[in-house]
Design a protein that fits this description.
The protein has five helices and three strands, in the order H-H-E-H-H-E-E-H. By secondary structure, the protein is an alpha+beta fold.
């Protein structure tokens, strides 16, 4: 009978640490998407860059909630901003977010 393989569980390998970092990044991305308003905003940003007024008109999200959710997306590094005069434009910064959103679109928004 073969003895069970011995594993050192006290010192994670470099592969495990890498996997742990990647899983943390994936979980952070999913947290950013796990809100109806943020998901709706990001879906609109996959189409094009939008200013706040356009996002409000396209999504129907009221100003206080819109500002709060855009702030969360900025802090999480999912969107970037560009200022043009008094207007601030938002677009998706994280390419991984675009790929996840495209996948979600394919699942939940089938062609008519």
């Amino acid at each position: 009978m073969l003895a069970p393989a011995m594993h050192d569980t006290t010192t994670p390998t470099a592969d495990f640490r890498s996997l742990e970092r990647r899983s943390r990044k994936a979980a952070d991305l999913l947290k950013g998407l796990a809100n109806r308003e943020r998901l709706l905003l990001l879906c609109r940003m996959t189409e094009a860059e939008h200013c706040v007024a356009d996002l409000q008109a396209l999504t129907g999200i009221g100003q206080p909630t819109l500002s709060q959710q855009l702030g969360v997306l900025r802090r999480q590094g999912l969107v970037k901003t560009r200022r043009d005069g008094k207007r601030i434009f938002y677009s998706i910064k994280d390419p991984a977010a675009v790929r996840v959103l495209e996948t979600l679109h394919g699942i939940f928004c089938p062609p008519r």
